[in-house]
Predict the 3D structure of the following.
Amino acid sequence: MTEEQVLWHELEHGVSQQGSSSKGNPFAEIPSARVVSQIGAGPSGRVTEDVDSDGDGAELDSEETEILATAKALDAESDLESYPGEGMLLKNPRSSVATEDIRLWRYLYGIPPSVEVRVPTAHERVDWVVPGWVAVYELMLKDGMRFPIPRLLRDVCDHYEIAPSQLMPNAWRVLMSLESLSVRNGVDCELGEVLFSYYLKEHDKDKGRFKLIARVGRAPIVTCLRTNDRGWKDRFIFVRGDLVWGPRGPGGVSGHWKATSRDFNRALPSGLIAEERTRQLLDIAVGERDYRVALSEENLRASRLWEFVEERPDLMSGRINIPSAKEAKQMMKGAASSSQREKKRKRVVLADTRVVDDPEAYKLSKAEAASAAIGKSQSIGSGEPSPGKAKKAKGKSTEGGDSVAVPMPSGGSVYSDPSFVKDATEALLLPADRKRLSEIGPVQAAEWSCAHAYQALMGWTHLRNQITAQEKRNVDLTASNATLRKSNEKLTASLEELKTRNEELSSNNSKLVDQNARILGQLDEVKEELHVEKATTASLRTEVESITAEA
């Protein structure tokens, strides 16, 4: 029996080669994996067999024989019952999940022992009909889905008569985020509210898969959804059990893929109630509606989505890439010890990011808290430290006590003398972290540090690009502001000129009015004179006529 085979046996069965007792065994509390798959699958193509504590081959005990016989029977039954479905997918890869992955999946994703897991055979695909089993993608578990399947995800699949695995990743992210937001903010969100803001649409190229699209004219409730999910379609398994659907059961949800005849764009007649609840969800801060925030471990535990999940703060999700059983065992051992340390740790975090164990120190100011932490690590009993000891304590990290003080001279500068930063960074390495890094080894510590350093570098590069772009926008805005200021000055001058012209026109208008009045007076005088002349002419005509008559 090779060393690799022995390690895989320890990982799969949770027993130590030095003894079968659970004392000192980091895997004793991890539920065993009930894997139903092809017999013979395993690391290095080995046939499934067992080893005793000495490493020699031995007969299986009665319990393991029963499990293996059940696996064979169920596998034979599945081969007879499973058959191709409606064949909607053009690109339909087979599952790349191996039997060895299942135990680690149960631990990482909190799959309960009551949920049976079945690794698809070589010929089975995700859209096949496997009676009693439901296909689940690993990406769904990475995004935070746990059993039982979330209520809104079940209701949408029930309404459209499709399987949960027919939904695209952003669809289940939206549905899980809506359920998380509704529970944590006290807003009811049912199927009517979902279909009020979203509608289902079949994928244009990948027929049989469905997207959840925001309706035209309505703001999407869940924000910052991803657009570049890759490499997830061949990572799926089949599951079954009462806890898969929870107390409500599957209802009308299809366990296998099929075409639906429902009207995708039709909303339920919810009326004003759905509109009001949607408004309440949109009133939540945009940052909280980010799907990454809504599906964080803290928020998932605060909702009903992780009701049956054991609390393991060190294990949320992450891509599984364990090339050997030794690394898998070492990873699980480190995770178990980290979880135990996290449960025992009871500390109060001060506002200046210092950590102390004394809750009374929280009431002190920052300077007093730092002094109290240094004094606590240096003093013996209740006596105060001497001035010499206090002065000496300022120059080193007090790792021996319950708290760690980080000395940072206020007059220092990393530009003139960067050497003092080394002592400060040495104090930042906590004893527990030093121990954990020593346990995982220098190679994995270097890989871990390199990955996080790369993340920090990417974040710094992104921020630098943002700052550069903002500076450029500021320069453009300054130039635009100067142009607008000049235009404003020109408009102001033009306005003053128009006012002057308006005043001149008003003055000329007054003069014209006066002149018009004078002309009208002169016309009246001329009319009077003409009237007098007419009267004189008439009297003269009368006299002439009388003289003519006498002659």
In short: Confidence is low (pLDDT under 50) at residues 12-61, 316-323, 346-401. The longest helix spans residues 431-550.
